[in-house]
């Protein structure tokens, strides 16, 4: 029933992609309970960006509560919900949206597994406070039984050949040969003007940020949903790893760009920053890359 309902829409791009220019509350009503293994998104921060109208913080919270309620309904019992957030700033005062919205998720009984810090090196330069260079991802689950594929997202060990120097394991490797846990602090470049994935969207997801969540929290064939899909980075991350992507946005131009990017990806022509690529360091020869 879920597939047939969405396939009737002219916005459907392919059999592994279901995307529409539509309000997320309307879009989600056609989706089945417990159908999404991963829900990952970055909602507007109520900062009067080109794609949003600034409203009171109280009304913003009410709007977020409505879509969060739908996402909880859609979330699979062993699935994960990842809400990526920055700060709302009003009259120079900073309101961390992860702290503002955290009670809403708890009201629905979700359990916080990590507060992931996404660190990036570039952004606006502030004059009356320190320049912000991080945002957060709140990772929630419905239950204590949830998908987590750590081996799929391990990163190279700092000392890959380090061995135990005493005890029963003397001489054996002291770390996991597959690499180490990436921890809850992720350094991934944000999408600025010189990023190969850059579109007209002012606050675009880097695909590799979502890739790590897709690989860790879903299995092949699972469904991934983004209720604020923008230009489709989360769907690209999903289908790149053989998942099924669902998404919606009310901005027609973003949906058209998303469709174009998805089409280019399927043809093998879309430029993406490789997952885990070394970050450019001007102090090193060739930037260290």
Task: List descriptors.
two-stranded antiparallel sheet, globular, 289 residues, disordered N terminus, alpha/beta, 8-stranded mixed sheet, 7 helices, Rossmann fold
Characterization of this structure:
- With 289 residues, the protein is α/β, with parallel strands linked by helices.
- It has a single domain (2-288), classed as 3-Layer(aba) Sandwich (Rossmann fold).
- Helix content is 26%, strand content 21%.
- The protein has 7 helices and 10 strands.
- The strands form 2 sheets. Strands 1-10-9-2-3-7-6-8 form an 8-stranded mixed sheet, sandwiched between helices. The chain has a two-stranded antiparallel ribbon with strand order 4-5.
- A hairpin with a 2-residue loop joins strand 4 and strand 5 (93-96).
- Helix 3 packs across helix 4 (97-107) and helix 5 (207-217) crosses helix 6.
- Mean pLDDT is 89; it is low at 1-5 and 7-13.
Q: TL;DR?
A:
This protein is about 25% helix and about 20% strand. The protein has about 290 residues and is of the alpha/beta class. Strand 2 (about 35-40), helix 3 and strand 3 form a beta-alpha-beta unit.
* SSE sequence, one letter per element: HEHEHEEEHEEEHEHEH
- The radius of gyration is 20 Å
Report helical residue fraction: 25-40%
Rough outline: globular
What's the number of helices? 7
Structural class: alpha/beta
The tally of domains stands at: 1
Mean pLDDT: 89
Largest sheet: 8 strands, mixed
Strand fraction band?
A: 15-25%
Second-tier CATH architecture: 3-Layer(aba) Sandwich
CATH superfamily: Vaccinia Virus protein VP39
CATH class membership: Alpha Beta
């Amino acid at each position: 029933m879920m597939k047939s309902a969405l396939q009737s829409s002219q916005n459907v791009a392919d059999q592994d992609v279901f995307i529409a220019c539509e309000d997320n509350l309307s879009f989600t009503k056609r989706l089945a309970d417990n159908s999404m293994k991963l829900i990952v998104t970055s909602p507007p921060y109520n900062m009067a960006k080109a794609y949003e109208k600034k409203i009171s913080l109280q009304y913003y919270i009410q709007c977020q509560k409505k879509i969060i309620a739908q996402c909880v309904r859609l979330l699979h019992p062993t699935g994960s919900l990842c809400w990526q957030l920055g700060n709302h700033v009003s009259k120079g005062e900073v309101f961390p949206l992860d702290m503002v919205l955290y009670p809403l998720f708890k009201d629905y009984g979700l359990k916080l597994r990590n507060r992931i810090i996404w660190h990036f090196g570039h952004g606006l330069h502030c004059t009356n406070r320190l320049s912000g260079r991080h945002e957060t991802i709140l990772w929630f689950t419905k239950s204590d039984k949830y998908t987590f594929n750590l081996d799929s997202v391990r990163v190279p060990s700092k000392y890959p050949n380090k061995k135990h120097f005493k005890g029963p394991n003397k001489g054996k490797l002291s770390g996991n040969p597959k690499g180490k846990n990436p921890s809850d602090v992720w350094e991934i470049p944000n999408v600025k003007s010189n990023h190969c994935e850059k579109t007209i969207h002012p606050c675009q997801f880097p695909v590799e940020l979502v890739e790590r969540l897709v690989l860790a929290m879903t299995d092949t064939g699972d469904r991934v949903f983004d209720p604020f899909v923008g230009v489709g980075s989360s769907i690209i991350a999903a289908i790149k790893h053989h998942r099924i992507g669902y998404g919606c946005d009310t901005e027609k131009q973003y949906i058209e760009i998303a469709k174009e990017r998805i089409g280019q990806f399927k043809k093998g022509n879309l430029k993406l920053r490789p997952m885990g690529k070394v970050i450019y360091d001007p102090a090193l020869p060739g930037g260290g890359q």
